[in-house]
Structures are given as structure tokens and as C-alpha cells.
């Protein structure tokens, strides 16, 4: 308790322990509650995402074809064709 409240005279300056030095709070100290809320929400969202991946139904099998398509075998090698005559060529001489 300062001396002025005990009935003693003040010397004009405060006692060394009367005023504490101001220290700014860090960002985490300032928003600690909000940080806890967001951490819980992030954990819940991550757990929900992982649970949804693990509990997902397997993909459906492809639908069964309702029409039967027969595969036609191709010839082993196509026959060479004669080159067509050019259209603007003069007629053959006799």
C-alpha cells in the first residue's frame, strides 16, 4: 500500500513496486478462446471428412449391356487397289 494512504507524506515520485511495467498481450493470449473454438471446429471437420471417406459405398458396377454386339473378324490384309486415272488426263492414243 502506498505511503500516502497510510498517512505519510509522498516524496513526489511513486515507489518502485507501485506501478508495474505494461506488457502487451500476444496474439494467442488475446484470442485464445477463439483459437480453441476454431481448433475444435477444424478437428471435427477433419474427422467428418475422414469418416465420410471410410464409410462411402463402393461404386456401382457398370450396367449390363441390353444389346448383344457381335465382333466381326477383319481380313488379315486388304487387297491393293489399282490407282484411279486422273480425271483431266487426255484419252489414250490408238
Verbal overview:
With 94 residues, the chain is an all-alpha fold. The protein has a domain at 25-57. 29% of the residues lie in helices and 0% in strands. The protein is built from two helices and no strands. It has helices at residues 27-30, 32-54. The radius of gyration is 47 Å and the shape is elongated.
Order of helices and strands: HH
Tally of helical runs:
2
- Give the DSSP E fraction (strand runs of 2 or more residues): under 5%
Distance between the amino and carboxyl termini: 138 Å
Average pLDDT confidence is: 79
Principal-axes geometry comes out as elongated
Low-confidence stretches: none
Number of strands: 0
Biggest beta sheet attributes: none
Helix content: 25-40%
Structural class assignment? mainly alpha
Instruction: Determine Rg (CA atoms, Å).
Output: 47 Å
Features:
94 residues, 2 helices
Secondary structure: elements and pairs:
Blueprint: H1 27-30, H2 32-54
State the gist of this model.
This protein has about 90 residues and is mainly α.
